[in-house]
Amino acid sequence: MSTCATTSQDLDEPLAGTAATARTWLLLEQPGPWGAKALTSSHLDPELGRALEAAAEGTGVRIALIRRTGRHADCHTAARRHVYAAHVDPRSPSTWLHSAVIDDPARLLQLDFAALGKGDHHSLGQALGAAPHTGAPLALVCTNGKRDRCCALLGRPLAAELTAAGEPGAWEVTHLGGHRFSPTLLVLPYGYAYGRAGAGEVRRVLAAAAEGRVVVDGCRGGSAWERPGQAAELAVRRASGEDRAGVLSVVRTEDPGDDGLTADAAPRWDVVVAHGDGRRWRVTVAQGTALPPRPESCGAALGTPARMDVIAVRAEATPGPPVPFAPETGTPATDGHPDSHADSDSHAGSHPDSHPDSHADRDSRADTHAVTPDSVTPAALTPDSDGPAADGPAVRDPDRL
Length: 401
Fold this sequence. Notes:
By secondary structure, the protein is an alpha+beta fold.
């Protein structure tokens, strides 16, 4: 049986740069079945769901429902529910993962969503009695078959296998976007998303997260960044070998305007990625079109999603000409740019990850380190009612059909 996930894998569609975007994740345990729009089509009071959507809009907070693996009967009896909140943007004074157990989900409306989006967790303690999470990293596997059958067919077995293997942080989650990359998951506390993940790979990712490290293989990107930033940060990790979480930040994305258009009028950006030790890289990414056409979700018409290609990574400290990427090898290319086949959920906005940085030298030139670039997809200009973008324009996943 052909599905959007099998087609995507057969076309070897790259994963990098396709993660849902959010500075802060708010996760509410909700037993029972979920509809396509889970906040308003589950056994959660739909009025409460709509109120939570309204409270989170424009704040950088993305809300999702979670549940334990297994059968999903809901007897509608009062139950204590787990709540997790994670701020994943390294540009903030601190990143964190807090947890609480509550009786009444309406207490979430007492939260200061604007403050949560900026990394201030104080309202979590005041409204929910939340405290820093001290357990294992969370593996949130998308399993909502009402969104796309691939999420149920591929996600639920993965979540069940993780639970059977004794992973205490395994949960099912309602929606992470990118159905065709199923099974997909989000790993907290650091906010990196993964696709086409097997249980063995996920356990390796979780073990690394427990040690404060990021596994790049299979990674769709860090949700703190818009999609050009996701591409750039992963490219820098490949180029530098840096795997520590929280040490890289996307500090600026520059849109050169008409001068930055490629020959076919496709946009391109210069993304500045900074290391905590002072190093900086300027990553050039360009938007392209994924071919041949493919379904972005099961049952959807064939489409040609936008992609972003990582063209070059320049370390700003050392003068020198840029060297194009050689895909898959991590060595300098000898004859031009890589042939990238990246693809994504959406189309790019004009100024994703825009953060003015008075210390950045806009005119610096540097040696370029070739990397394995996993081409990526930019963010869209249309809003996603399931959650706001981390910065810049909101993101709409085309698989929300």
